[in-house]
Amino acid sequence: MGTFGSGRLAAGVGIGMAVAAIAGTGVAMAAGSSSVIDACYNSSGRLRIATTCRSSETAVSWNRTGPQGPAGPAGATKVQVVKRSAAVGTSTEADLAAVCPSGTTLTGGGGEVSPNGIANAYLTASSPYTGGGTSPIGWHIIGTNNSGTTLTFSVYALCAAP
To answer: Which of 9, 85, 119, 141 would you call most buried, defined as having the most Cβ atoms within 10 angstroms of its Cβ?
Structure first.
């Protein structure tokens, strides 16, 4: 009896899943063919997509696409990279800043040591530079050269103008 009952249960579950899949596809197609989404919700807040609500549910609908919003501000039309480099001797710390030109805004920055792959030469800081003010006006790096040879440290500020 256990085997026979299990078979009927499995068949029932399989048929139920197939019906649910077909019904779900029908609802999705109905919702997909309109610019409005219809749904129903009950007192516990459960929402379901449907075109017909049960007596215990409240109908609600909304547009698939809302109204167009206002135009955004114009983007940057001029972007430039400001670079400042310095030769840094061995057992020396580099402290460099690249400052954006007047009328531009800092959008990012970074730094590097070249040539690449030299042991014991590294950046210890890379951050926006305020020049003593409160707003960033460029990019700042600090680095150390303990490589035994003179290296080039460079800082880059990415600056944009409206």
So the answer is: 141
